[in-house]
User: Fold Nicotinate phosphoribosyltransferase 2 isoform X1 from Nicotiana tabacum.
Amino acid sequence: MAETIANGRADQCANNIDGPTNPMVTPILTDLYQFTMAYAYWKAGKHNERAVFDLYFRRNPFGGEYTIFAGLEECIKFIANFKFTEDEIAFIRSSLPPTCEDGFFEYLRELDCSDIEIYAVTEGSVVFPKVPLMRIEGPIAVVQLLETPFVNLINYASLVTTNAARHRFVAGRSKILLEFGLRRAQGPDGGISASKYCYMGGFDATRRITVFLCFDSNVAAGKLFGIPLRGTHSHAFVSSFLSPDEIIEKSLQHRDGSSVCEDFVSLVQTWLNKLKWSHLLGGIFSETNQSELAAFTSYALAFPGSFLALVDTYDVMRSGIPNFCAVALALNDLGYKSVGIRLDSGDLAYQSCEARKFFRAIEKEFGLPGFGKMNITASNDLNEETLDALNKQGHEVDAFGIGTHLVTCYAQAALGVVFKLVEINNQPRIKLSEDVSKVSIPCKKRCYRLYGKEGYALVDIMTGENEPQPKVGERILCRHPFSESKRAYVVPQHVEELLKCFWPGNSDKTREDLPPLKEIRERCIEQLDKMRPDHMRRLNPTPYKVSVSAKLYDFIHFLWLNEAPVGELQ
Assistant:
């Protein structure tokens, strides 16, 4: 059914931008009150009034001081293909009161986003509270219909990308990070989205690792987004074997095709015996689990060029590591280089150090260069705190597989993105609240990031649309939007305008291209490098300053006083 709807919508939409990744993202993926408001606007003749909305968030997640903006591409795909099908219009009609006039549904039938303009921060950028991530301009009824899907598409995407970036920061650049979250994600869409946005946030960084590993277990995400895949086997595969006698096909061709080993199982057993009687390894193990050895051997016969074993099904040091090494050494005889091991339980720091000692002893005794650098991957319900603790303890893990805490954003359920009207018919609007953090910043704005001498970002500043742009080397007063005493002069060494046009609608403005996922990921890494270390630290980070110009500050408070009713005491 989803495919039928998608095809029907594609027939109605003349553009060259693909539809949203998830076919359920359609114009009816919204709250009912968006349609009731749209009808009320239409009934009042206000539906074509020009409105400006800001999409932003109020607090950084996870107790940190930065957020990564993600989800923009899906929003653009959504509006590029925004068109109601006849089935959807019929359903909307049945969901609204019968008194709604037919003319409204004719209006919906013709509706698209050709008169919408979208200005946004580039996806993958570091962003901060109150600064608009997106500015949406257009007929108020249409923009209102975009609110719920936009908030939905940005909220989780930005949250999980930020979560991934935080894990990357703690793990360090030299470690491989693998996203293992599909089975724990909130449904198929959560799993697909998580894979995309974890990659964007810095997972699978291989630039300082020479191992060929790559890094996502979600095959569907790999197909959709071109994310490199990585997969091995589970405990079930290991425990499904009873003995090496089960292995029927025992032959394995040499990597260069020059010869065939007719009995790879016996070659593995020969190496295991050599390890058992090695003077450097003597006493570490005696008899290993033979069913585990059978599983490893069978897996190596299936994937001789990418052998990676899960070694904690029975006993890591007395069985798993020796069995893995016996198979890896047999593969080495035939020209194959094994990838490494995965640890999924127990004391990961201790086990990784002991495994590394074992690998190095083999390298020394048998003269095998590089064997001591065999890759060690660790999983087992890892999170930021676990990674930090492992770093403090000292470990030999090269790669971390992170699932539940990453994709479910276990530490914080939602980012809290909001969508607020800031101008209509060129008249600025403000939303007031007793909670100052919920007061909106009115009018159409331009947003800039000011950089200091060392290349780090100093402050974000919002100005009125017609105010002059901050200039390099010229002092500008930056004010807290709501606190009179918080202000500072800044002399920027570099000025970056944040909002760019990603959907010009019917205007003649140039549309920014949507960069590919890999470029967005690279931008994310570059942006984080431009942040001061004290803004990035896990505990008690220094708050990043978000400000407004002096002129906008005065206007905010003028409008506030003008809109707030004056109380009377009797």
